[in-house]
Structures are given as structure tokens and as C-alpha cells.
Amino acid sequence: MQLSGTVALVTGGSSGIGAATARALATAGVRPLLAGRDPGRLQAVARETGGLALAADLATADGPAVLAEAATQAAGPDGIDVLINNAGIGWAGPIEQMTAEQAANLIAVDLTAPIQLTRLLVPGMAARGHGHVVFVSSIAGATGVRGEAVYSAAKAGLGCFAESLASELAGRGVGVSVIVPGVIDTPFFEHRGRPYDRRRPAPLPAQRVAHALVRAIEREQGMVFVPRWMRLPAWLHGALPGTYRRLAGRFG
Length: 252
Ligand SMILES: NC(=O)c1ccc[n+]([C@@H]2O[C@H](COP(=O)([O-])OP(=O)(O)OC[C@H]3O[C@@H](n4cnc5c(N)ncnc54)[C@H](OP(=O)(O)O)[C@@H]3O)[C@@H](O)[C@H]2O)c1
Hints:
Elements: E1 7-11, H1 16-27, E2 31-36, H2 39-49, E3 52-55, H3 63-75, E4 82-85, H4 100-128, E5 131-136, H5 139-143, H6 149-169, E6 174-181, E7 184-185, H7 188-192, E8 204-205, H8 206-218, E9 223-226, H9 231-239, H10 241-251
Parallel strand pairs: 1-2, 1-4, 2-3, 4-5, 5-6, 6-9, 7-8
Helix pairs in contact: 1-2, 1-8, 3-4, 4-6, 9-10
Bound molecules: NADP nicotinamide-adenine-dinucleotide phosphate (NAP).
């Protein structure tokens, strides 16, 4: 896809991977519409990228619809060309310590909101015969991670949603990409309330994901792992689940 001159809605544009993606898109000549809850951080990224800040809480029942409407108005008559479903929250700990509200909130932001935004915005792209939708998943959604069962489930659901959608949209001018990051150096861990405490793999800068994401749109890539070697645990999990489970039990 030729990105220059297009309009992209980036959820989670106020921080981490979303803010880095907005910068990379602006460099590629894209006008970013930045969604998040923190108006100050959104405005700062908007100023830096020539974008527009759209505050919305994606955990609420009408949050995705309110955002889709505001973004459609802001995009103008040619509509939104690219939807980047990046906003997400984590939660880590034993499942019995997670409250019903925390689980519902996580599913709302990480899974329901991308589904609703896609349902509201992608049919317009298909009607125009032109567009791209990106889902920022996680290696947790490809393999499952101990202590992150609900987060892993939400990201696995997102991956399956994207695969089904790609098949449904084939030949209609709308591309679908899934980005699968490993460990990335962003405020994600601080926001989830539990720091990343492993020595390996070392966290990568958010720009690595942003550049891979922009390239995935330009090259119409279906699934991209960041870093690339992360495809190995995902492959092992799919091909040899018993072996994967034994190794994960030993090394975490
Ligand atoms: N960092 C990692 O290691 C890693 C690894 C794999 C996948 N990921 C995924 O990458 C994506 C981006 O995460 P990040 O690392 O950049 O984390 P981050 O810095 O914490 O950014 C999360 C973004 O999501 C937005 N957000 C959270 N709750 C929201 C809500 N209720 N309504 C609207 N927006 C909301 C935040 O906006 P406000 O703060 O303005 O509300 C923020 O812009 C997430 O989907 C995450 O699951 C991250």
C-alpha cells in the first residue's frame, strides 16, 4: 500500500508503540489520528506528528463507536485509510487474584474494542476498495504465558479474528496485518502494575515495532514477529505442543 497522503487512526497513540508508530507514519507522509485517554500525552504526540488528538475510553460500552464517529468526521470525505488497533493493557498474577472487573476491562480494551472499531470502519474501506487494518497482538497470544492467562486469551482471540477477517476481505482491496511483539521497552509494564523482571529476552525499543508495522502495511505482510526469532516459540507451540509445554514449564 502507498502510504503517503493517507489518514490513519492509531489507538493507543498517547504512549509506547502507538506514539512511535504515529511518528513513523508521519515520516511516511501519513496524517495520524491519535486515540487514547490522556489528553496531555495525546496532544504532545499530535503536535510532534502533525496529527489530531481524539480522546476516548475504549473500555466503555460506547467508547469505540464514539471514537469511530469522531475519527470519520476528522478524516473528511475520503475516509480513514488505515486502522491500527494498538491500544492494550496487561495484567499479571495468579488467576484467582484477578477481579471480575479487571478481567472484563482487559477484554474490553484488548479484544472487544478492536472488533468494534473494525466492524465500524473497515466496511467503508472495502466499499472504497482501498485500506489496511493492523492488529497489535503479542507473543503471549501465540503461545500463552504463565500468570497472564486473560491477556494471552485476549491476544489469541485478536489473532484469530484477524485471520478470519483477512480471508473475508481477500480481493476487496483491504489488507490485514498482525504484529506480534515480544518484550518492548514501553510504560506497558508500569501501567499493568507489575514490572518485567526477566533478564532475557531484553526489551526492544518501541521504534523497532513501529518500523516493522509501517513496513507490514506497505508490503501487505500478514504476520510480523518483532524480533523475528519470536516466530520460533510460536512455531514450536503450534507444531509440537507437548514439547513446548515441557520447555515452558522449565524456563517460563
Ligand atoms: N510493551 C510490550 O512488551 C508489549 C509486548 C507485546 C504486545 N504489546 C502490545 O502493544 C500494544 C501497545 O502497548 P505499549 O507497549 O505501547 O503500552 P503502553 O505504553 O502502556 O500504551 C498503551 C496504550 O493503550 C492506551 N489505552 C489503554 N487503556 C485504554 C482505554 N481504556 N481506552 C483507550 N486507550 C487505552 C493507552 O492510552 P492512555 O494511557 O492515554 O489511556 C496507551 O496509549 C498493546 O496492545 C500491548 O498489549 C506490548
